[in-house]
Amino acid sequence: MFSNVIVLSAGQTVYCGPRAKMIPHFAAAGHVCPTYMNPAEYFISLVNTDFEDHVEVPKLVYAYSKSDTSKQIQERVNRDRATLKHLPDIRKRPPSALRQFSVLMYRN
């Protein structure tokens, strides 16, 4: 199974985080999953504007942006970005014309 889930709607993040915290997150936003319904289907029906019972997606996006899960993920992203700044620039030179020619000749 999946350990992390990302729910997007129109390119906006509605939820991103552990699967176990997804149901409580949506319940806190006022959308409790019905007892005998598949949670994945329920959450997709909430954010998919093609369905009749979708809710206002901006409210869900706002609720996620203010959640602890969102803040934790943003902190991890910022730490990763800080780490990347210290890595050496490893841009490669483009292959020379001779190298390109030899690769093409080898293929044929």
Fold and architecture overview:
- It is a single chain.
- This protein has 5 helices and 2 strands, in the order E-E-H-H-H-H-H.
- The protein has 108 residues and is α+β, with helices and mostly antiparallel strands.
- The chain has helices spanning 22-28, 39-47, 57-65, 68-85, 97-107, and strands spanning 4-9, 12-18.
- It has a two-stranded antiparallel ribbon with strand order 1-2.
- A hairpin with a 2-residue loop joins strand 1 and strand 2.
- The longest helix is centred in the last third of the chain and has 18 residues, at 68-85.
- The model has no long low-confidence stretch (mean pLDDT 85).
- It is 50% helix and 12% strand.
- It starts with a strand and ends with a helix.
- The protein has one domain (4-85).
Q: Please provide the ordered H/E string of secondary-structure elements.
A: EEHHHHH
Radius of gyration: 22 Å
Largest beta-sheet characterization: 2 strands, antiparallel
In terms of quaternary structure, what is this?
A: single chain
Categorize the overall geometry: elongated
Residue share in helices? Answer: 40-55%
How many distinct folded domains?
1
Total strands: the figure is 2
Averaged pLDDT, please? Answer: 85
- How much of the sequence lies in strands comes to 5-15%
Structural class: alpha+beta
Low-confidence stretches: none
Number of helices: 5
Strand order, biggest sheet? 1-2
| N- to C-terminal distance | 45 Å
